[in-house]
Amino acid sequence: MLEEIARVLFWLGAGEILARLGVLPFPGPVIGLVLLYGNLLVRGHLPENLGALADRILQHLGMLFVPAGVGVIAYLDRLQTEIVPILAAVIGGTVVTIVVTALAAEHFSLRAAQRHPEPDRKVQDVNA
Helices 48-59 and 2-21 sit at what angle, rounded to 10 degrees? Predict the structure, then answer.
């Protein structure tokens, strides 16, 4: 387990260094995750302890929402004064996301149907 913690922290650190140097225009954790994935591809298999580490981290995922909740409470007065623009942004963004997703799904399903048309199915009369 300790080896897998070191592996994750190593690639996270490497991603942070690359992000801070400006090598790639992505956040450090994203770069680190891609590097970890590349490392696992080179190894050819997923270590069992890495899966156990991921399970343990996911058990405590709810604690990551505590800072966000504290931030909401800390800025509650500001949120009360700005509630209308915040709700407009959240609802508007949600509607735009749903509409764009529906249009994209329809577009891609039509393209897939054009590439792979279903064969004509003839109805057979069972009495004949």
Answer: 70
Q: What's the whole-model pTM score?
A: 0.52
Q: Are residues 5 and 42 both part of a single domain?
A: yes
Confirm whether 123 is domain-assigned.
Answer: no
Residue 122 lies in a domain: no
Give the span between the Cα atoms of 116 and 100, in whole angstroms.
24
Tokens, residue 69: 């909740």
pLDDT 10s digits, 56-110: 888 988 888 888 888 889 999 998 999 999 999 999 999 999 999 999 999 999 9
Tokens of 7: 């592996």
Q: Are the C-beta atoms of residues 15 and 30 closer than 8 Å to each other?
A: yes
